[in-house]
Amino acid sequence: MAEVKMFGAWGSPFSKRVEMGLKLKGVEYEYIEEDLNNKSSLLLNYNPVHKKVPVLVHNGKPIAESLIILEYIDEAWEGPDILPKDPYERANARFWAKFIDEKCMPPMWKACWSIGEERAKAKEEASEALKFLENEINGQKFFGGDTIGLVDIAANFIGYWFRIAEEIVGLELMTQDKYPNLCKWAEEYCKCSFVKENLPPKDKLADIFKGIIQAQSAPK
């Protein structure tokens, strides 16, 4: 049997992407939890460039970066498709997954933890990016159509992590009136049994987000 190890962090949406991919394919693996404040020598050896989780190790060979790992999983193991078979649809899925990482997540995260003009700018940037996703999901249950695919897994931060952070900080960004399609997708996505089993506990994430707020408000 092939040896599969996965280095991750329980609260990381990037780590959870990889775990979802492995479980979707029915791959057995050893999970190694990393302390991100004290990274193991193994992790640093396997990912010396970025020094980050997640890292997948398959028969001693490391693969880094969550979206690249998901493509590897899709090609290496049989099971439900993560990416579409059609070349155009595959390219389209890659485009939107990259769009989420580069254009959606950074300003959404920044909007949660910045203040004043910086928050207003991040909010505007995030709003513009979310409009594209709102149009892309229109008329579909998932970005992958009737089944969960690469873009849905890539958007896990938007569907779960961000909504918890948004509630904690009192940020009104991804609202039902502005983004009805995205909100419906997030609801469908998070109540899907496969996804639900692979999401970190809401209360634990909420505690981390509250800790960020406390750290920000502490006297310098």
From TrEMBL:
Which residues does the UniProt record annotate as the domain GST N-terminal?
Answer: 2-81
The entry assigns this protein to a family as follows:
Belongs to the GST superfamily.
Q: Where is the GST C-terminal domain?
A: 86-208
Question: Can you tell which superkingdom this protein's organism belongs to?
Answer: Eukaryota
UniProt key word Amino-acid biosynthesis: no
UniProt enzyme class: transferase
EC number of the protein: 2.5.1.18
Q: Which reaction does this enzyme catalyse, per its entry?
A: RX + glutathione = an S-substituted glutathione + a halide anion + H(+)
State if Chaperone is listed as a keyword: no
InterPro entries from the entry?
Glutathione-S-Trfase_C-like, Glutathione-S-Trfase_C_sf, Glutathione_S-Trfase, Glutathione_S-Trfase_N, GST_C, GST_C_Tau, Omega/Tau-like, Thioredoxin-like_sf
Q: Which PANTHER family match?
A: GLUTATHIONE S-TRANSFERASE U8, GLUTATHIONE S-TRANSFERASE, GST, SUPERFAMILY, GST DOMAIN CONTAINING
Mind listing the UniProt keywords for this protein, alphabetically? Transferase
Quote the protein name from its UniProt record.
glutathione transferase
